[in-house]
Amino acid sequence: MSAGNVMKYLFVAAIWFSGVGASFAQDVIIRSGFFLDSLQVGDETGFYLTAQYPSNLNLIFPDSTYNFSPFEFNSKRYFPTKTTAGKSYDSVIYYLSTFEIDRSQTLSLPIFQLNAQDCTMYTSNVDTIFLAELAKNIPDTITAQNAPLRSNTLYEDVPYQINYPVLLIVLGALLIIAAVVWIGFGEKIRRHFRLKKMFKAHQKFLETYDNQVTAIKSAFSPTNTEHALANWKKYMEQLEARPYTKLTTRETTQLENNDVLGKNLHAIDGAIYGHNTSVIESLESLKQFADQRFTKKLEEVKHG
Predict the structure, then answer these.
(1) What are the structural domains, with CATH classification, of the chain?
(2) More confident residue, 14 or 76
(3) Do 213 and 225 meet the contact criterion of CB atoms below 8 Å apart?
(4) With contact defined as beta carbons under 8 Å apart, do 176 and 188 qualify?
(5) Do 49 and 35 form a contact (C-beta atoms < 8 A)?
(6) Whole-number Å distance between alpha carbons of 300 and 294
(7) Which residues, 6+ apart, have CB-to-CB distance to 33 below 8 Å?
(8) Deepest of 37, 177, 228, 274, by most Cβ within 10 A of its Cβ?
(9) 48 pairs with which residues across the strands?
(10) d(Cα 89, Cα 78) in Å, to the nearest integer?
(11) Alpha-carbon distances, residue 137 vs 133, 141, 191 (angstroms)
């Protein structure tokens, strides 16, 4: 192992076991790098990713579904979180392979911080690994006299065989491993993907709703107002599993037992079916209501 590789191993060990050397001038410190200086096509190498951050933050590392291009994900090793004096230390080793033929290949990975209403992404430093050349100075052409070729046009029947005992053993082991992982981490996995789905749906709602409100500010239209209200009802129905799209304003007010919400809904109804064009404040109130319910639902899922 080269001196560079040894230094990288010592670096990861120092980060994980003691946290020494990390600067506290920043809230979140991300480090990453390859264990090897070079590798051959198809070989595996380790790539470490470490984070030092205040212990009250919730950070998520990339999983196997992340695109590690130009590398292929093989496996990972996660070390339990270590907390000292309000600072937490996390470390993951990703085992990757490459089948690309570029002479130098680089990689940088993100870490996501879950906030109340959005996500903050931190990007690690970029590290480079070189591809080892197996054959050098290959001539572009070769003369026919020097080509060791022999003609053979006879059909060669190659039997296709499957080692069924080994196949059954491998499948059984995979099923057992999958069952153990699901029993041990199934709830955490489901919660992670549910939170991810909630964030994505909320951001999509806010983007569409804000565009609709902006259009109404520019030029009031009962049709655009009705579309904005329908968008809000559809999102609330998805978020809380209640039939908002099928309820009238009076039924929604009774369901929520919220007079302010009922007042805003009546104002929007007046704009759609009457002559009231002052609906921007009511539409913004509906957005705030959706934000509050999203934050509440997010806490329920996190601690549920």
Answers:
(1) 3-131 (2.60.40.10), 184-303 (no CATH)
(2) 76
(3) no
(4) no
(5) no
(6) 10
(7) 8, 11, 47, 48, 125, 127
(8) 228
(9) 33, 93
(10) 12
(11) 10, 12, 55
pLDDT (0 to 100) of residue 129: 94
CA distance 277 to 216: 9
> Could you tell me if 117 and 294 are in contact, meaning their C-beta atoms sit under 8 angstroms apart?
yes
Say yes or no to pLDDT of 145 above 70.
no
- Written as one letter, the residue type at 281 is E
User: Which residue type, as a one-letter code, is found at position 184?
Assistant: G
Which two tokens mark 5? Answer: 């590789």
Which pLDDT belongs to residue 31?
Answer: 95
Tokens of 68: 């590690």
- The three state secondary structure string of the chain is CCHHHHHHHHHHHHHHHCCCCCCCCCCCEEEEEECCCEECCCCEEEEEEEEEEECCCCEECCCCCCCCCCEEEEEEEEEEEEEECCEEEEEEEEEEEECCCCCEEEECCEEEEECCCCEEEEECCCEEEEECCCCCCCCCCCCHHHCCCCCCCCCCCCCCCCCHHHHHHHHHHHHHHHHHHHHHHHHHHHHHHHHHHHHHHHHHHHHHHHHHHHHHHHCCCHHHHHHHHHHHHHHHHHHHCCCHHHCCHHHHHHHHCCHHHHHHHHHHHHHHHCCCCCCHHHHHHHHHHHHHHHHHHHHHHHHC
Q: Is 304 exposed, middle or buried (0-12, 13-18, 19+ CB in 10 A)?
A: exposed
Q: pLDDT-derived band of residue 15, with 50, 70 and 90 as boundaries?
A: very low
Q: Six-digit token pair at 228? A: 């904005």
Angle at 139 between CA 135 and CA 143, to 5 degrees: 130
